[in-house]
Automatic annotation (TrEMBL):
Residue span(s) of domain ABC transporter: 334-580
Cellular component terms (Gene Ontology): plasma membrane
Source taxon at top rank: Bacteria
Alphabetized GO MF terms: ABC-type transporter activity; ATP binding; ATP hydrolysis activity; ATPase-coupled lipid transmembrane transporter activity
Topological type in the membrane: Multi-pass membrane protein
PROSITE patterns in the record: ABC_TM1F, ABC_TRANSPORTER_1, ABC_TRANSPORTER_2
Domain spans labelled ABC transmembrane type-1: 125-300
Native organism taxonomy: Bacteria, Bacillati, Actinomycetota, Actinomycetes, Streptosporangiales
Name of this chain's protein: ABC-type multidrug transport system fused ATPase/permease subunit
UniProt keyword annotations, A-Z: ATP-binding, Membrane, Nucleotide-binding, Transmembrane, Transmembrane helix
Gene source species: Streptosporangium becharense
Pfam families named among the record's database cross-references: ABC_tran
Keyword Nucleotide-binding: yes
C-alpha cells in the first residue's frame, strides 16, 4: 500500500514529496527539543540561575517559532501536492477505464460504482499519504517523548501502553464504517445523475414541458438524504469507538500527572519535571490520537486502493497476451460463425446463432425492427464486445487474436446517438483520427466527404467556432448538424478496414439524406478498393438498396440475406417493410 501511495505522490510532484518528508521528520524533533528547554528554563528559574533561564527561554521560543513555520510551510505544500495527487488519481482511473478493450465494463453498474467511489473519495489517498508521514512524525515524537518521561520516573510513562487499545478501537470502528459507506455509493451516484439532468440544457426542455423538475428534485433529495443518513451512521459508529479510546487516554493522562505529583511530594522531582510531564503528556496524547487517526485513514485508503487495483487489473484477462496487428488490407473479408451474445448478468441472448460472411470490398446494409439486435451486431464487428459464444474472423484470423487497439484503429464509425463533443469545430471533427486532429486539410476533406460544409458556413468563426453551450461563446447546433459532424468524424480515417454507419441519417431531412446517400455511395466505392467493408444500419430502405448486400435482423437472428431486388420479391420481413414504406410515400 505504501508503495502505491508514494507512487501517486512521486508521479505528481517528487520535489514536494521530498520537502514534505523532511519537514514531517524534523517537526517532531523540534517539538520535543522545545519541551526539553522549557523544563530547563523552569528548573533554572527555581534555582535562580537567570542566565541559563534566559538562554533556555530564547531557545524554546526559537524552537516554537520554527515549529510554527514548519507547520505553515508543510500545510501549503501538502495542499499543492494534494491537488496534484487528485489529478494523478483521476488520470490513472481514466487510463484504467479506457485501457479495457471493450465497452461492457462501462455498462456495468458495479464497475461504475467502484469508479465513482474512487473519484469521490480520492482525498482519502492524499490523507493517507500525509498520515504515513504523520506516523513517522508521531514515531519521532513518541520515541523522544518517552525517553524524556523516563528521565523523571518509569511510571510517568503510564500513558504509553494505553495507546494500544486506542488504536485497536479506532481500527474496529473504521471497519464497521467502511461496510456502511459502500452501501451509500449507488445512492450517491444516482443522486448526482438526477441533479445533472436538472442542470442539463439538453434535458431541461423535456423536464420543463413534462413538469418533471419537482419530481426529479424530490427524488434526488430523497437519495441524498438516504446516503447522508448512511454516512451519518458510519460517522457515529466511528465516534463511539473514538470516545472509548479517548476515555482510556484521559485515565492514563491523569495517572501520569498523579505519579509526578507524588514524586514532587517525596522530593524526587522538581517543578521543571512537572512542567515537562504536563506538556509531554498533552503532546503524547495528541500524538497517540493522531496515530489512531492515521491508522483509520490508512484503513480507508487500503479499501480504496483495493478497488483501484481491481480497476487497474480488470482487463488482465481480456486482452490477448500476444495479439497481432490488424492487416493493412482485407483480402477475404469478415466471417461470423455461430456467434451468440448475452449481456453480463442477463439470462437471454441478444444475438443467437449468427452466421454471416462479408466479402472484402463489400457494402452491407443491416435492416430490421427496433430492438432486433442490429446495433449489438455492429459493436461486435467493431470489437467493442466479444461474442459470448462463436467466433468472428478477419481474413481467417480470429478477431480475438488481433490486438483490440489495433483493430479499433482500423475501424471508423458514426452512430445515431454519437456524442456531441463540445470543442472547437475543427477538434470535434479531428478527434475521429487523433494523430491528425490538428491537420486542417484532413479535417476539411472529412467535412467535404460528409457534406458538412453548410454546418461550417453557418457558424461565426468556421473551424475555430466553439460548439455547445458549455463553452464561452459556444454555438449550439441542430440534431442534423451534429449528425453531419459525426459523419465527418468518421471520414477522418482515410484507409479503414471497416466503415460503420449506425443509422447515420436519422436526424437529417429528406434532401440532406439523398445528398449524403450519393456521397456515401461514392465513398463506399473508394474505400472498397483497399478491401474495406462498409456496414450501415438504416430503417430507410431507399438507402439500403444501394448496398451490395442486405442483412435482415429479426428477434436476435439473421433471417434474410441478399440484394434488394431478391429480398423485395420474397414474402419475408424485408418485402413487408418495403411495401409499407412505398405505401407511406404514396
Amino acid at each position: 500500500m505504501l508503495a502505491a501511495l508514494l507512487g501517486f505522490a512521486w508521479r505528481a510532484d517528487r520535489r514536494n514529496v521530498l520537502v514534505v518528508a523532511v519537514l514531517l521528520l524534523s517537526g517532531g524533533a523540534v517539538v520535543i527539543a522545545e519541551v526539553w528547554f522549557i523544563r530547563d528554563m523552569v528548573d533554572a528559574a527555581v534555582a535562580g540561575r537567570w542566565t541559563r533561564c534566559v538562554t533556555a527561554a530564547v531557545a524554546a521560543g526559537l524552537l516554537a517559532a520554527s515549529a510554527a513555520s514548519i507547520g505553515r510551510v508543510q500545510s501549503n505544500l501538502e495542499l499543492q501536492l494534494g491537488e496534484r495527487i487528485g489529478l494523478e488519481v483521476d488520470r490513472q482511473v481514466l487510463t484504467a477505464v479506457s485501457g479495457v478493450p471493450h465497452i461492457g465494463h462501462v455498462e456495468n453498474p458495479d464497475y461504475l460504482d467502484r469508479v465513482a467511489l474512487i473519484r469521490a473519495r480520492k482525498s482519502w489517498l492524499t490523507s493517507a499519504l500525509w498520515n504515513v508521514g504523520g506516523v513517522a512524525n508521531t514515531a519521532v515524537v513518541l520515541t523522544l517523548g518517552i525517553a524524556l518521561m523516563l528521565t523523571v520516573h518509569p511510571l510517568s510513562a503510564l500513558m504509553v501502553p494505553a495507546g494500544v487499545p486506542v488504536l485497536l478501537l479506532r481500527a474496529a470502528g473504521q471497519r464497521k464504517a467502511t461496510a456502511l459507506l459502500d452501501r451509500a455509493t449507488p445512492l450517491t451516484r444516482l443522486e448526482q445523475h438526477l441533479t445533472g439532468l436538472c442542470l442539463s440544457p439538453d434535458a431541461n426542455s423535456e423536464i420543463r414541458i413534462g413538469a418533471a423538475g419537482d419530481g426529479l428534485d424530490e427524488r434526488a433529495d430523497r437519495l441524498w438524504s438516504q446516503a447522508s443518513a448512511i454516512e451519518a451512521r458510519a460517522d457515529l459508529r466511528t465516534a463511539r469507538f473514538a470516545i472509548a479510546g479517548s476515555a482510556i487516554l484521559v485515565a492514563s493522562y491523569t495517572g501520569a500527572l498523579a505519579v509526578v505529583a507524588w514524586l514532587i511530594s517525596q522530593g524526587r522531582a522538581g517543578l521543571g519535571d512537572l512542567m515537562m510531564v504536563v506538556i509531554l503528556t498533552a503532546t503524547l496524547t495528541r500524538s497517540t490520537t493522531s496515530l489512531a487517526g492515521s491508522v483509520t485513514a490508512l484503513q480507508r485508503a487500503v479499501g480504496l486502493l483495493d478497488r483501484y487495483h481491481w480497476l487497474r487489473d480488470f482487463d488482465a484477462g481480456l486482452t490477448p497476451a500476444s495479439g497481432g496487428a490488424a492487416p493493412a488490407t482485407l483480402r477475404s473479408g469478415i466471417t461470423l460463425s455461430g456467434v451468440c451474445f448475452r449481456y453480463p448478468g442477463s439470462e437471454a441472448d441478444v444475438l443467437r446463432d449468427i452466421d454471416l460472411t462479408i466479402p472484402a470490398g463489400t457494402s452491407v446494409a443491416v435492416v430490421g425492427p427496433h430492438g432486433a439486435g442490429k446495433s449489438t451486431l455492429i459493436k461486435l464487428l467493431c470489437g467493442l464486445y466479444e461474442p459470448t459464444t462463436g467466433v468472428i474472423t478477419v481474413d481467417d484470423r480470429p478477431l480475438t487474436a488481433i490486438e483490440p487497439a489495433s483493430w479499433q484503429s482500423a475501424v471508423t464509425a458514426a452512430f445515431q446517438d454519437g456524442h456531441r463533443f463540445e470543442l472547437r469545430l475543427a477538434e470535434a471533427v479531428g478527434i475521429g483520427d487523433l494523430p491528425h486532429m490538428h491537420d486542417e486539410s484532413r479535417v476539411e476533406a472529412a467535412i467535404r466527404a460528409a457534406g458538412a460544409e453548410d454546418v461550417v458556413a453557418a457558424t461565426p468563426h468556421g473551424l475555430r467556432t466553439p460548439l455547445g453551450r458549455s463553452l464561452d461563446g459556444g454555438v449550439d447546433l441542430s440534431g442534423g448538424q451534429w449528425q453531419k459532424l459525426a459523419l465527418a468524424r468518421a471520414a477522418m480515417r482515410t484507409r479503414p478496414l471497416l466503415v460503420v454507419l449506425d443509422e447515420p441519417f436519422a436526424s437529417l431531412d429528406a434532401p440532406a439524406e439523398r445528398d449524403l446517400v450519393r456521397r456515401y455511395a461514392e465513398t463506399a466505392g473508394q474505400v472498397s478498393e483497399t478491401g474495406a467493408i462498409t456496414v450501415f444500419v438504416t430503417h430507410r430502405l431507399s438507402t439500403a438498396r444501394i448496398a451490395d448486400l442486405i442483412v435482415v435482423v429479426e428477434d436476435g437472428g439473421i433471417t434474410e440475406v441478399g440484394k434488394h431486388e431478391d429480398l423485395a420479391a420474397r414474402r419475408g420481413l424485408y418485402a413487408e417493410l418495403h411495401r409499407m414504406q412505398v405505401d407511406s410515400y404514396a
